[in-house]
Every structure is written in C-alpha cells, then in structure tokens.
Amino acid sequence: MSSGGAPPRLGRSDSERSADGGAPPAQPDSTPAVPEAADATAASVAASRVGRLLLQRLRKSQSTTVLYGEPEGAVEQLSLQDGGAGIFPQLESGSQRLIVVANRLPVSAYKDRSGRWQLQVSAGGLVSALMGVGNFQTKWIGWPGVYIEAGPERDELTAALHSEGYSPVYLDQKTCDLHYNGFCNSVLWQLFHYVPLNIDSKLSETRMLQFQWGAHQLANKIFAEVVLQHYQDGDIVWVQDYHLMLLPAILKEHKPRMKVGFFLHTPFPSSEIYRTLPVREELLRSVLKADLIGFHTYDYARHFVSACTRILGLEGTPSGVEDNGSLTRVAAFPIGIDPDRFTEALEMPEVKANIAQLLNRYAGRKVMLGVDRLDMIKGIPQKLLAFEKFLEEHPEWRDKVLLVQIAVPSRTDVPEYQRLRSMVHEVVGRINGQYGTLTHVPIYHLDRQLSFNELVALYAITDVALVTSLRDGMNLVSYEYVACQRDNAGVLILSEFAGAAQSLGAGAILVNPWNINDLSQAIEYALMMNDHERRERHRQNYMHVTIHTAQTWADTFISELNDTHVEAELRTKNIPPALDLEAVVGCYKRSRRRLLVLGYNATLTTAVEAPRQPKKHFDQIQALTRVNPAAYSCLAALSQNPRVDVVVISGGEKQRLIEVFGDLHIWLAAENGAVVRPPGSQDWQTLMDAGSGDWKESVQLVFEYFCERTPRSFVEQRGTSLVWNYKYADVEFGRIQARDLLQHLLTGPISNAPVDIVRGSKSVEVRPVGVSKGASMERILQYMAASGASGGPGAGLPSTDFVFVGGHFLPSTDFVFVGGHFLARDENVFTLFEGQEPGAGGSGAAGSPQADTLLSTLFAQDLEEMPTAITPGRTRSLSSSSPNLAALPEGQPAPPVALALAAATAAAQQQAAAVQQQVQQQQAAVQQQVQQQQAQQQQQHFGRRAGLPDNGRQQTGASALPPLPPPGRNGGGQQQQADGLPFKVPPKYLFTCTVGRSMASKASYSLSGSMEVAQLLHKMALADGIPTSQLHLPGMSTSASFDDLLQSLMMAEGSMSTSL
Q: Residue 292's beta-bridge partner residues?
C-alpha cells in the first residue's frame, strides 16, 4: 500500500511507486536486549530507549555535518560510557530474523523468453527502507501478484522466490478479488480516506459485503498459515497495512509470545466515521493483539485510540490502549524515503541530459509540478481550479508560468474513476483553451507514469510543487521533491490533510485544498517569494528528509517493538501465573473441609449476546450481564455438600444476590461485605459499622449534580455507601467528569468525614472508613467460628474434622480457594488467609497503632501533591479527625511510607510468631483431651447428621445463629488471634486467584474469566462424586455434556470486556 493515495490495482506496473501493503522495517543498530537480571526494572528500559535515540541522532549527525557540527568522536565517547554496555546494548549482526508480511511481495514475477521465472524488485520507499536494514535476516511473505494453479509451474515460481528470501501466499482468483478489490479497496480504503460507505439499493449488495468479509477472513487465515510455517522462536513479525488487520489476532492465538508489530500506511479516520463500519469491533480487537501499532502521524494514532475507547469501551492512555491490564502500545512513526537514491540519480549523465533539455524547453517560465495518481482523494480538480483562478486574477503571469500535471491512471475499470478522468480532461481543456496561445499552453497534462530518471529531472527543474491531497496517509511525493531540490531550493505547497504536513509543515506553505481562494493566493505567494525565504524553508525541509529516512523509520519501529516487548515482559513479571486446575482439584480431593470464597462481577457473571439478535454496543452487553449458568449449576451442587462452605462476596446490593443465589445454601456478602446473609437464613446481619451516615446527604447532592452534567450516568444508593456510575455515559467525557467529581469530594464538605473514596473503572464510590472485602471476610470467618461452636452450619461432621480452638470444637478447614475480580484495595481478601491483617486500605501489612499514626501523618503531608484522580489500592485510611483518603498513584513510590510499612510488617511478623508458638502449645495440651472424647463426639455427630434435611445440610434460622461480635470501625483493627478463626492460618491448601485481570495482583494465581471458574467448580463437583446428570441446566438435555455447555458460552464471553 502506498503511504496514502488510492489502493493500486493488482497487476500494476512494476515502476508504480506505491508499495502495496508495504514492507516491514528492521531493527536499529542499538536495540536493547532483554535484561539478563530477573529484577530488571522498567526504568532501565526507558533509559535505554532515550539513550538509543540520542546515539542514533549522533550517528546521523556525523553523516550530515553540514546540518550539525558535533565532533567525530562523539559517538564513540557516548558508546564507551558505562563500559559501552547497559545503556546502549548491541545486537549481534544478523542475530534476529524479521518476517515482513504484506499483501504484495516487493517483487514482480514474469517469464523470460526461455520460459523461466524472473523477479524484478518493485520501486518504492517501503521496499527501499526494509531492504536497506542490515541488522536482520529478512524474510518477506506476501502474494506474488499472479494467479497460478497448483502444479509444476507454481513449484518453479516458489523455488525462485525462496532463493531470494521470499515466501509466496497463493490465493485463488475469486478469493483474491473479493478480499483485495472487494473488502479492502471498496470498503476499508474508502472509509479510511473519509469516503462514506456505499448506500445499498438492493439486498444482493448487502450480501456481497458478507461475501467480501468472508473472503477477507479466509485470506488472513491463509497468510497466517504461511507465517506460522516459517516462524521460529525469537522472530519478529511485522504486519503491513489494512489488508491484514485480522492477522495479529490469528498469530497471537497460536503463538502468544510472538513479537508482532502492525503498521497502517493509510489515515485512520475519526471514530465517528469508523463506527459506521459493520465489522468495526472485530477489526479493532484483532489489531489490538499486536504488541506495537504504528501510524504515520499522531492524529491517526489519536483517532485509533479514540475508536477503541468509544467503540470497545477500553482505556486510552498516553502509551496506547489498555484492556484490563494488558497494554497495546500505539505510536506515530513518520515514514521517509531514501534521499541518497535521488541525490545519486541527479549525478547520472542521463538525468543531467534530461535536466538540460527541460530547462531549455521551459526557459523564461516558472514551472509548477503536480505528481499524483488519478484518484478522488488527490485533489486534482481543486488544484486545477485554483490555478485557473490564479490565471484569471493575474493576467501578467499567463505566459510566464506553466503547470505540469502527471496523473497516473488508477482503477480504470471503476465508473467513479472514469468520471474523474473525464472531469480532469474537461477542466484542463477549458483552461488551455481560454489562456493558451499558439506557442504556449498553461497546463501540460500527462495520463501516464514517468520513468524514475525522467521524474528526478522534472523534480530538479521545478520551482513550485503542488500537493493538494484531500486525504493522504503521508504522500512521499513531497519528500522526493525536497530531496531533488538541493540546488534549486524550490517552494512546496502542501495540503494540510496530507500526513506529510506534520513533518514538512515548518518549511512548506500549508493550504486547505477545499479553499480555492487561499490555494490561489498560495500559488502567487510561492511564485513571488524572495530567495532568502525560499532557501530557509528548503533548509528545514531538507534537514528533515535527510535525517528521517525510510531506513530510520524502519529501524525506529523495530527498535520500539523490541522495547515494547521487553517492557511487556517486565510489566507481566508480577502477574500471577495461570492456575493449574488439576492441581487444585487434587488438593481438593485430599482435603477434609473446604472453603470457597468467590467474587461476583466477572467471576460468576458473563455477558452472552442472544443469537439472531442485532449486535449490541459494549455498554448494552454489560447491562445484560448475568450469572454464568455453568458456574451456577456447579455452585448449586457444591452447596449441598456439608464439607464445603461457599461465600459469594459482591460490591453490589443485597437484593441482586438474593435474586440469584437466594435458594442456595451459601453465605452471601453484599455491599463489599458490609452485610451478610448466613446459609439457611432470610435475614441480613450487619458486619461493618456504617457510622452515623451524616456524610451521605452531602455526597448525594454532589452525585446528583454530576448526573445532571453527565448524560446516562446514575447514582446507586446502597445500605452503607453511595456510588456514582457512568458506565453507560460517553467514555471519555465520563472520565473527565469523574476527575472533576473527585476534586469536589476531596475539597468539599466531606473532606474530614470518616469515609473512603474508591474510584473503580467507571464509577466513584464513597464508603465508610474500613469497609473492604478483606476486612469483612475476617468478620465472616469469626461469624462462621461462632456459628460452628454453637451447632450452626459447621455442625454435623465427624470429630476427626474438628480442632479444639478457644474452648470449642470447630471445623478444621484445610482447603481454601479465594477467587475474584477485585479492585486493588479489596485484594486484602487474598492476604487475609495468609495471616496478614486485611487493613482498611488493603495493604496487607499488619501495623501497630504507632505505625498507623506515622502513616497518617505522612499521608496528610502529601495530600496537596496528590493527583485529582485517586488510584484505589495503595491506600491507608486515616483516623476520623484526619483527611479522608490519601492514595499514592500507581508506580510512584513513597520512601517514608515504605519504611513505615516495613516497620509495621516486622512488628506483625513478630506477633504472628508469638501467636503460632502459643497455638502449638495449646494444641499439644488438648491433644490428649481430643482423643478421650473422640468416640463420644463421633457418635453424637453421626447421629445429628442422620437427621439433617436438605442432603445433609442443617437448616438454621436467624434465631439459631449466634450473636455477632460488636462490629469495629476499622474493620478488624489488630491482628486477630488464631482462636478467633475456624481454622489455622494459613490453611494447608490455599489458592488465591485473581479473575480476568492481566495485571499485578496480591493473588498467587489467575484465571481468565468466569468460564474457567465454572470449569474449576465442575471439576470439584465431580471430585465430590456428584453425577454429571445433576449439573445440567433447565432446558438442556440431561445427556448434554458440560463441555457442550461451556462451548455454547465460551464464544460470547471471549468477545466481552471483563472490566465490568
């Protein structure tokens, strides 16, 4: 694909300068290698990137001493710093392979007179860029441009291509036509250049789009098969242009660790234009699987990020697009040309002869030049009309200036292009007829392509170049013109809608081609410009063209791709590994008493679009989120086992949990665990003291004010908290409003209220100090202990399943599984079971009152330096007399706080050691007593179990439950002794698991989503001996396997965003 312009037709001439699909760049001389040390930090990677760019600049300065003046030894001195390594690590030449995947190979195949296949390299900036990179063993993969049936002839062509490092992708003619001429050129290319999609007048036309989309998918799969055949571990794969937007996802599906870069050589439209594409989500999600996505300009990159934000609901960051912790880097990489090719051509005798001939032919007249494909987005009619207006208003110039317009034919079989050609010919004829003479015509129009030498000579004698593209990816004609104007210093008139305007805007005259008057005045200004200004403008443009070459573009992209991959490795180093389901089930079988703690959103819920219904927007899909039926079926079966305790904890309202799980014999905790409903009870118990709630009225007024300012936002009134939710609002506007709302809350009337402010992905919640899932889980465990000691849900088991704690026999839970999609501040539920204090802020570190006071003081001093958008997770609640919430931004360390946390952790470890020693002594003392009472207890428990209804579960009412200990304001306060919990901490088998979050977590393992949670629950149910027939859903055949159920739900969940 050319860097802009219309999509060229298949089988075009070899000299056409637009490289179809482009070729990939290679790695720079100083690409940072993957750090050998396991504790390498992201800061070192950032330093290596900056250092690499500085070194690259110095290297370029030595080759262009006219533009810079650094001493020759500067590069060597810089390279030798730190022993020549560290900041500027070098790759061994040829140590990596670069696989360039483009729609077309950079060569054209033809047969010579003897019938043997010959290859001719196509001309173009992309080809020159990637063929000039010497750091890699480059392999090209693409369509060879000819249709050949399988047989000896194709084998001969394949062998000829392989000998030169090319791997062909063969497509049949029908697939290629629907894929390339159909979907790519008629749909994607037009839309990316702001040409609206065709309005279908017949149903058959809409079906044709479906056929084209199917062929496009098939073509990308065929390309992927060839890439995977040649891929080796460590290779870099660079995918080029819009023809292969589906390829990154296919490759990553087979090779998740593959380095994949994607570059788009056309503009990327505004999200309002792109969202008209019927398959908008599929293309965006596929491209986002690449590690690095490149565009020519920042505007195109910004439009892409905006499309991902508004269409997919993902998080746009300055670095790229973040999808639930997984970051795809998006950046601008302006392409260049090979200027040496043009400057060397100026010294050729043939070119010098052409220059002399043209100067003699056009003597006494100013020469203006336009070189374009005959395409609707090139603005040729606008250029001609502006020139006509100039001649009309300035008759003195009619015999002193001429315009040479080269219009290379393109897509001559398309009616729209045929009409454009007729229009251009009509305008040229009218101008020449009105302002021409017997010896002179103002416009020289050519409907053909010039040879390279002819074009270089024409560039060299041109005084003013006119580039009036209505929309162009980059337009390298402007670069080529500047490269050939080393001596003449001509003037460049450049459309502001061409990508080159952001690179050459300092020296060019930028114009709006739709404004004929301004374009005409720009022509006058260029012709009348004085020599000093011309040369100064040209100097700036020539500096850019000679420094930012095609090879530099290729080097930079590949180097950034390597850096991005290294950063991704560092970023994922702390991400918990995937949970081994079989290992968990094995421990589950060996355990005697089990506790399952599960989150609700994105853990037990899924978003499944109903079949045969219109495709829904991402916020509508989230609105239809429901409990995963497979997980519910397994939970219902597990809840009947008296050896299994299940706790479902949610941040939502209790009514929602009652509607879903009200019939199950499990523990339900709503509002982040502030209220709990024990098994078999219909009443909710309050675990966390909400205080007086005087702050609610003020917060309610602020939330309602922002609801009026933010369409489709709403307020959730919960028992202990208030939530402002903007998940249905415009994504970008909602985030701006959320930052403003945080400022109002932090500086408003509740600044001293005993509350925490928690910012979720698309919500802002105000809750009492100390309310978190970890703190509430600690209270639930105490409640379970009291319940078991009084003959509650823990009763009914053999005495061998009990331990003597606190004067009571309690169930000996030796298997604990904790899984959920929690905010960072709520991940203290993971650390709780490891013996750490949950804490109000979820730090997981135990602390003494002295440490709490120190932390409060430190955070109070840093409040003024806090960002307006508070990051939940790294928080520590203050006393009620102090400001409400202090949070450190992610990735910003606070050394004094770290010291305080370390001191608090050390104190906690000492206290835990003392507690463990005390427990060991107590166990030894009561062991003999347990043996004496074993027979009596065993008989009693077996008798009680025999009379239990509901499959062995004892039904208890609210009155049968023991009273809960008085709730604390700080969610637990000091580290609880072991005799306050129904099992020792940590238990024998402990699995903490974050669900659906590709980011660092306090959990030890990770699961991808609710389907994997359902699979784990299913395996546990089978381990309990529950027959598969009891796991089917209403409406499903009892003979249907669980795998059938998973298959029916997996497809939809794979396309939903787990960030609910």
A: 261, 329
Q: Contact at 8 Å (CB) between 32 and 48?
A: yes
Catalytic site residue from 241, 472, 645, 852: 472
Q: CB atoms < 10 A from the CB of 963, how many?
A: 9
pLDDT of 967 reads 44
Residue 1006's DSSP bridge partners are 578, 994
Six-digit token pair at 996? 């659906």
Domains of the chain are: 97-332 (3.40.50.2000), 339-548 (3.40.50.2000), 581-609+621-688+772-787+812-831+987-1024 (3.40.50.1000), 693-768 (3.90.1070.10)
At 36-59, the pLDDT tens digits run 333 433 333 344 555 555 555 454
Higher pLDDT, 814 or 613: 814
pLDDT in tens, 458-510: 999 999 999 999 999 888 999 999 999 988 899 999 999 999 999 998 899 99
- Tell me how far apart the alpha carbons of residues 532 and 515 are, in angstroms, rounded to a whole number: 28
- Tell which residue, 839, 822, 777, has the closest CA to residue 1001: 822
Tokens standing for residue 855: 């932390």
Taking the alpha carbons of 280, 284, 287, 289 in that order, is the dihedral positive or negative? negative
Backbone angles phi, psi at 591, to 5 degrees: -80, 160
The CA distance from 856 to 871, in Å, is 18
Q: List residues bridging with 110 in a β-sheet.
A: 118
Answer whether the bond into residue 986 is a cis peptide, omega within 30°: yes
**Dist. CA 890–CA 870, nearest whole Å:** 9
Cα–Cα distances in Å, from 627 out to 338, 436, 479, 782, 826?
A: 58, 78, 58, 28, 21
DSSP sequence for 79-99: HHGGGG-SSS--PPTT-EEEE
pLDDT attached to residue 827: 86
- Residue tagged active-site, from 216, 265, 544, 941: 265
Neighbours of 1019 (CB within 10 A): 19
As a whole number of angstroms, the distance between CA 615 and CA 880 comes to: 49
Other Cβ atoms less than 10 A from the Cβ of 199: the count is: 6
- 370 bridge partner residues: 405
The sheet that has 491-495: what strands, in order across it?
443-446, 401-408, 366-373, 464-467, 491-495, 509-511
And the tokens for 859? 């955070």
CA 707 to CA 189: how far, in whole Å?
40
Nearest residue to 24 via CA among 166, 103, 124, 130:
130
Is residue 265 part of the annotated active site? The answer reads: yes
Q: What is the DSSP string of 241-287?
A: SGGGTTHHHHHHHH-TT-EEEEE--S----HHHHTTSTTHHHHHHHH
What does the H/E/C string look like for 871-926? CCCCECCCCCCCCCCCECCCCCCCHHHHHHHHHHHHHHHHHHHHHHHHHHHHHHHH
Q: Return d(Cα 69, Cα 63) in angstroms, integer.
A: 10
* Cβ density class 182-196: b for 16+ within 10 Å, e for less: bbbbbbbbbbbbebe
Q: Where are the beta strands (DSSP E) in 468-579?
A: 491-495, 509-511
Task: Give yes or no: 445 in active site.
Answer: no
Dihedral sign for Cα 429, 434, 435, 440, please.
positive
Look up residue 701 and give its two tokens: 């007024």
Percentage above 90 pLDDT, the chain: 36
Phi, psi for residue 887 in degrees, rounded to 5: -135, 135
Query: What span, in angstroms and rounded, lies between the C-alpha atoms of 169 and 105?
Result: 9
- The 3-state secondary structure of 754-819 reads CEEEEECCCEEEEEECCCCHHHHHHHHHHHHHHHHHCCCCCCCCCHHHEEEECCEEEECCCEEEEE
- Cβ count near 41 (within 10 Å): 11
